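Technical note accompanying the year-one report. For the benefit of new consortium partners, we illustrate the data format agreed upon in the data management plan: each record pairs a sequence with a structure-token string. No post-processing was applied to the example shown here.
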Amino acid sequence: MSDKTPTIQRRLQRAYIVMSSDPEIIAALRAATPAGWEMKAVTDLEEVGEWQEILLHRFILVDLDEVDVFDPLAPIREVRTEYMLQTPIFCFGGDEVVRDQARLARADRFFGREEIVRRLPEFLEQFGWGG
């Protein structure tokens, strides 16, 4: 078995990715993340690792307002078309134009900036299986 092959223990760890550079939203999401969960805040999926590392995360939150820092559509396209992963992708913020583009890139759901923090406990419960 290669050292890059995830172990069963790693697959059961509870983790999610936040793609944002907004310190306020990152702090709010981190504060809403209970013990036993790991939040990884990045602006580039390469910071997470290769596709098998991304797959170890239960879901991805993408900040659609980050157009000055990174292209928020790029990670959606990368996950869906390059890696062909079905990891849930929840977007927040953004105007209707960027949301429509994210829909075409196959993002799953869309929320307001304030709503994403309120809904986080629901996502954690829904995706908390096995660990």
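Partners are asked to follow this layout when depositing records. The mean pLDDT is 92.
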